[in-house]
## 1
Amino acid sequence: MVKSVKWFFVVLVFSSLISLSFDRRKTFTDGPSLGTEAPELVLCNETKPLNMQSDKGKYTLVSFWASYDATSREKNAGLSHIAGNDARINLISISFDRYESVYKASVEQDKINADNCYLEMEGENSDIYKSYGLKNGFTNYLLDNEGVIIAKNVTADELSALL
């Protein structure tokens, strides 16, 4: 009896390890990678792309979030407060909320500068969502002054240390 329980436990642990190795939900390998130029940002209600290039010595931080995703919203708020206090960072904050009223309430509640926030109401069907590979979760990208990705999924602490 004890031998069969041990064998069952070994098989259970081994199968769990194998299944975890195929879990892609927490990986950020989709979308553009470091060292490549960031894809163009054209919102559903805009006709021209957002400018992702900045002056020499400055950075652009593109942050994707939604009010229904607590982790992305919290990360976006933290990054927004750091970017608001540092002239070297140009923040482009893009929300994938379906309703403008929810988006506006979140921006107000999180005390985010509305001038840097944009709403993409097409959600998963938008070109931005697809080109940045956001199906595995919202993330952010730090770009140099030429629009090349130099960091991905940056936290507020990491951004502070980087600056």
## 2
Amino acid sequence: MEISRDLYLNKLILRKNNGFIKIITGIRRCGKSYLLNTIFYKHLLQSGVDSNHIIRFAFDDSDDLKLLGIHIDDINQEKYKVPPSIFMDFISKKINDHEQFYILLDEVQKLENFELVLNTYLRKHNLDIYVTGSNSKFLSSDIITEFRGRGDEIHVFPLSFSEFINVYQGSKDEAFNEYSIYGGLPACALMTTDEQKTSYLKTQMENVYLRDIIERYNLKDDNLISELTDIIASGISCLTNPLKLSNTFKTIKKENNIAPYTIDKYIKYLAESYIISKAIRYDIKRKKYIETPFKIYFEDIGLRNARIEFRQIEQTHIMENIIFNELRYRGFDVDVGVVEIRKMNQNKQIRAQYEIDFIANLGSKRFYIQSAYEIPNQEKWKQETKSFDKIKDSFKKIVIVKDTKKATYDENGYMIIGIKEFLLDPNILY
């Protein structure tokens, strides 16, 4: 079954022949290779590009390596890298005229000195280059700097709910329940049993994602990054900081020597590998960022749930994580909002802070969003919208609830909408 990834396909189409290397990044197993080698390749053919002018090469495919005269029996598959001269000779034979050629390279980190090779190809007027990679270095968010400003990144997320529901056999409510538990990794979405999905997610988290970080940074203590991931997974959507997490280690893990500095460093490793994302607080009135405390969310909620053995399925926190990912999928920069006011308390002026779950920014557009699992009465509604009342600008303010609910507005212009309606309508914010 083919999973449609139209959002990313359109991004690739818009970037065709723009003079940059198109670098498709994202967490392992999110569908980067499929996007490039199946969906985009099919688009090129359908748009009239001759198949002889599309050069596809996967550096982890034994059949492709044979084209270079490399046989897997003769190499260490884990450590071997393709010599640039052999690959460039192969490419030069394929480029046999002056028409436009499209080069689609998968697992390009297995090409030695790939940055230099690709920057060389940028100087060829008739080459348009697209690459993916999956080792720990290529997964890092700093990969773009390797191309000295000539890289154009397309970041791919696991399946959004709108993508997931297109391949799910069941009702909308059943689909959301499934998505909330097992997330949106494409291979997992196509599996049919809970046992398969559970085993897949747990194995990927332990043996692929964390292993990448351990190998990249040569971590001596494998357990530390693993235990930190468990603690973060238990506290998604809650304000935290390295000191608080260090204290949690002392309390739960009985560890006394894990400094906040080390915790902060490991959080950066997890974020650079796209396993988690930090949401920084933004003071709306003072118009400045507050570096700590912050919130942490998982790139895929299924991986988060697998990390804690599917035990803490708190719908409030999971829903907030899903909304955060959806906003980023739609291209927004997402912060946690803070509104600080002064008020009188027993004849004394005090400062009070009101939190807004998300400030979503895209260019000149801004939306304030609250994630509220339930709004059973008017008192709860006032509680959820109190922070909105303190904001004096005219940007749209939205409350998302778990029940099925079409968008409606109150007398203040605040919107309330159900989570599924929000996730399935890409234009609902507008």
